[in-house]
Amino acid sequence: MVSIIVPVYNGYEFLKECLQSLLNQSFTDIEIIVVNDGSTDETPALLKQYENFKNIVICHLSRNRGEAAATNVGIQIAKGKYIARMDADDISLPDRLFLQVAALESDPDLVLVGAQTQVFGRDGESTTNLFLADGDIKCALLVGSGHLITTSVIWRRDWFIQRGIWWNTSLPSARDLRFWSEAMLAGAKFRNLPETLVRYRIHGANASHQVEAVRQSSRSTRAMLLRALYPSLDENAISNLVPVLEIQFGDVHLNDADALLTAEKSLLQMRSEAVSLYGENRHILRDYIDQWISRVQKRINVLEGKN
User: Fold this and answer.
1) Residue 217: phi, psi to the nearest 5?
2) Does the predicted model carry a pTM greater than 0.70?
3) CA 252 to CA 234: how far, in whole Å?
4) Which of 98, 91, 100 is CA-nearest to residue 19?
């Protein structure tokens, strides 16, 4: 059985379409666990329409506790061998679970499976180009993009529970990145399927648009990954490196030339460390390191007035 966890907070507008996409799955051994995270809109009234569905479980939280807590509640009450996560504003295509369960059943070492995703909304449509292989996905976790998309992921429930890995409720955002990263450090094997299996909706209320919260949470996880992947780095080196790795936030926050010079030395040290510790592809990591070195050098030139 697959337990599909759908945390929802004031998600009335798109929730019905989301749930219908799950009811339309070609893989039918499922339970849909909707965790109403203290919604104050019409979500509770909408969920009343599903109270008598035999494969839908509805859990109402008395107050808004956040996506991570709601997801953990769903995991705790789930009965399935596998857990799938679904955002309440997204759409699963009909063969999503069929293909993902087949991948997990065919490889007992595989812990977690994602898929390509069609992004749609205000700015049109596009399809992700996520890494497919385990070692490549693990490199992308450090970079912060190209790894896994929460609303397309399915994992082995017991594997995470046995290792005490839950969604981190103390982080203001990017809890998914921390969840995948902790799994990687515990020995998980990942895979993304090449098929597009989920439609990911972009709209004004997306949690991923909370830029500063995403930034701070991602920094914490990147620091954790740097410590694990490059144990020779000290805390000062890590604190200088983390802002450099934030390519998606531009360069304007990189204003300390001395810190950048220190970061450059650390990157050169990292480039020489070729042994994979957690299954990550060090060849791809070296390519990323070269990009970060180039970025640092260009920014130093700007700060010193050479460009």
Assistant:
1) -65, -40
2) yes
3) 25
4) 91
| Nearest alpha carbon to residue 4 among 155, 194, 119, 106 | 155
The residue extents of the domains of the chain are: 2-209, 230-303
Among candidate residues 150, 111, 145, 113, the one with its CA nearest the CA of residue 129: 145
Give the C-alpha separation, 39 to 165, whole Å: 27
**Rounded distance between C-alpha atoms, residue 189 and residue 211, angstroms:** 29
| 122 has a pLDDT exceeding 90 | no
Q: List pLDDT tens digits, range 238-267.
A: 999 999 998 776 777 888 889 999 999 999
DSSP assignment string, 51-86: TT-TTEEEEEESS---HHHHHHHHHHH---SEEEE-
For 204, which DSSP code? T
Query: Can you tell me the mean pLDDT for 119-129?
Result: 90
Tokens encoding 255:
């204003």
Closest CA to 27 of 70, 74, 82: 82
Residue type, 255: N
The model's confidence at residue 215, banded by pLDDT at 50, 70 and 90, is: confident
E strand residue ranges, 142-216: 154-156, 190-202
Cβ–Cβ < 8 Å for 181, 218: no
3-class DSSP state of 119:
strand
pLDDT of residue 209: 55
| 302-306, long-range: CB < 8 A, 24+ apart | 302/251, 303/255, 303/257, 303/260, 304/257
pLDDT digits (tens, 9 = 90+) for 144-175: 889 999 999 999 999 999 999 999 999 999 99
- Residues in Cβ contact with 214 at an 8 Å cutoff, skipping those fewer than 6 apart: 173, 174, 208
Q: In CATH, what number does 2-209 get? A: 3.90.550.10
Backbone angles phi, psi at 259, to 5 degrees: -65, -35
Which of 178-182, 253-257, 292-296 is predicted least confidently? 253-257
Residue whose tokens read 């972009």: 202
